[in-house]
Amino acid sequence: MRILMAAALIAACAAAAGAEERLTFAEAEALMLSASPQAASSAATLEAARKKADSARAALYPYLSAKGSYYREGTSAAPAYDYYSYGLYASQPLFAPASAAALRSARASLDYRQAAYDKTASGLRYALAAAFADIVCARETVKLSEETLKRRAENVELIRIKYQAGRENKAALLETEATLQAARWQHQRYLKSLRLLERGLNRLLGRPAQSPVPELAPPAPQEPPADLSAFAAELDRHYSLRGARASLAEAAASRDSSRGAKLPSADLSANYVWSGYDWPSSPNSWAAGASVTLPLFSSGRLSADLDAAKKREAAAGADLRDAADQVSLDAEDAFLSWREARSWLDVAAASQQAAEARAWLVRKQYLAGQSSYFEWRNVEEQLINAKNQSLAAGRDLAKAGAAFRQSIGE
User: In this predicted model, what pLDDT tens digit does every residue of 380-395 receive, in sequence order?
Assistant: First the structure.
């Protein structure tokens, strides 16, 4: 009983260790976004835009500063004396169209940088999904190649026995041996391709290129819906559209800033100052008031700036309409490709099933002397091709799904 319990415990520990070695897509995505230079650069730019928006917001609130000065002055005919001054200064904008427009522009720039970061993350996420699909397919292809090698070796032995018994010609034996050698060469190519893909994934995750890649747990495949209308909300939040809207908002803020330059501006200011030649007893003064500034003549500069801002706003509006059309078309293309890949997977699965049944039947017939070597060889090749085609169809479906998710801004 104790032996059985110990064996069960060892098996549970081994299963837990194996589970820990599996790399899920969510874990890989977190590693990728933290290690990618592109994501780091985009995140830093986004944080800088956020700070600029905070700075622009602060320009609308009171400003308080302290100022102090000291110097010693004298002449050859009089003793030197010390002079100092220090005080507090405060200001509050009352009517500042330029500052309000600058805040709107900074917020629009923040939205644009957020959309740019989401675009970078979406591109990296697609690259990661494609790497997962390629590696999973390559590993399954290697396993299939190992089975093929075993089957090829068995075929060589079978043909050799039939040749020695005088029931098969030497050409068939030589051809079967050559096929085995070709399968060994192809197996090495599959191993090389797998290693290159694993190195690419390590680089994507910011890991050493030669690090072993654990078992991958790709995201569960999704069934494509009947039409694209189910993703209307995602398309409306697409990073390209959000970026185009932010550019339009920034152009509108620039227009308001240019228009506000023609309007008066007003602010409230106050100060309290201590100054004199004696410390600490010294005279003090204070002042409080409001100021208004009204531009009168600028040689046409303000009007030209306003006209240019209006043209930039019109251009941004046209870019937004173009982006909306492009996002819709790209999403539809990716959606149709996704559904096509899903249908092709069914075709590949049915073809593999038919090829397996056909190969089993022809092999039995060949062993019984009811079919020729050439027919049996062709059926074997068809079976291997059907299995490889089925693996490729699964990989293409996973990549088509990832491409569609990227096309809707995920």
Answer: 889 999 999 999 999 9
